[in-house]
Amino acid sequence: MQPTYNKKQAILSLIPLLTFVSLFLGVGLYMHLQGVAYAFYQLPAPVAILPAIVLAFWFNKTSINESVETFIKGAGHSNIITMCLIYLLAGAFSAVAGATGGVDAVVNAGLSLIPPSLLLPGLFLIAAVVSTAMGTSMGTIGAIGPIAYAITLKTGIDPALMAGTVVSGAMFGDNLSIISDTTIAATRTQGCEMKDKFRENLKIALPAAALTVLLLLFLTPEPEIVETKPFDWLLVLPYAFILVLAVMGFNVFVVLFSGIIFAALVGFTGSYEVSGFVKDVYKGFSDMQEIFLLSMFIGGLSEFIRRNGGLDFLAKLVQKITAVVAKWHRKVADQLGIAFLVLTSNLCIANNTVSIIVAGPVAKKLADDGDISAKRSASLLDIFACVMQGSLPYGAQALLLGATFKISPWEVSASSFYCFILAFTAIAVICLQRNKA
């Protein structure tokens, strides 16, 4: 079948997106070669995308007023606005729950329950629980990393192995959490409910986590006793509260708003004050400013690409790449195409949320064409973005833990066993459940 779009115009519509990726990647590589810490995070993504937006206006074959209307329509799409509002509420919950001492309570509660002979599997599970509760791998690594490093010094466990264990657990929750920005981006771009994506994701993530636990159990050295700090079980409840509500199928806005109020009420039983609550809510909003702006800008840019046939062109290009697999099974080929899209995007951008936002529209097109459910395409987007992010030596996770443990980020990435196991598990599920996507 011949394409229903102008091929030249479709290719031109993709140049702005490639410009954004190239600029973001190029500046990151340059900074890295200059020895700058967190090189790929020195150029804010909302700034890097501005030249791309200018190019999109230039290549669009309409008047400036019509181009502005096109951009605003994309930036103001209901999915984009919903996603941005969820970002704000998720940021507020994370800030309030963290300010009341919830993160420290979850970490110490987990450490108090770990038998010494299960140190590595236990730390993996703690990181998994904390990241699922917090919705952020970086926040989890920031909270658990120093504790894990202290344990390494005391027990003599290989620092790279310990750091890789923390990354593994952090990426588990980053992938699954209903307040993670990757989950928000994946579900909104694919048009599915969070609870459905969570359940679909769980079918792949749990077997991968179980295999990781078994591997870490084998790698754990002789038992050592680890001291824990006192904690209040009450501070753990807000995280459990929102997880239960989400799994029960409550509206995500209700879940997050209720979680914010519940976390504040728990804090008020201690020394937490109303003035602090107000400031923390705003701080949570501010923490989401970058991804908020980028989501709107990407939405506007994507509308230019969609209108000019770029999405159709990319979808057909990916289908050509996976044509060999398609001869065996079309659905498997399209699912692998979605995985390839987000892996490539994340490799260039080194940010799993941004890579999902960039790859999302094309993934949606592939899913629709291949009759793949929205929950499966959202799950695959999130899984493979987190696989790549947790495996990147120049990703923020590896860089932070490399600095914390005083080792090379390459060593951290090489020990992130869960990410590798998750990739193989996801591919196995795609092939074995080829008729159930």
From TrEMBL:
This is Na+/H+ antiporter NhaC family protein. GO terms for cellular component: plasma membrane. The keyword Cell membrane applies. It comes from the Bacteria. It is a multi-pass membrane protein. Residues 14-218, 239-429 form the Na+/H+ antiporter NhaC-like C-terminal domain. It is found in: Cell membrane. The keyword Amino-acid biosynthesis does not apply. Its main location: membrane. It holds the Pfam family Na_H_antiporter. GO terms for molecular function: antiporter activity. The chain crosses the membrane at residues 12-33, 39-59, 80-103, 123-152, 204-220, 240-268, 336-359, 412-432. Belongs to the NhaC Na(+)/H(+) (TC 2.A.35) antiporter family. Keywords: Antiport, Cell membrane, Membrane, Transmembrane, Transmembrane helix, Transport.
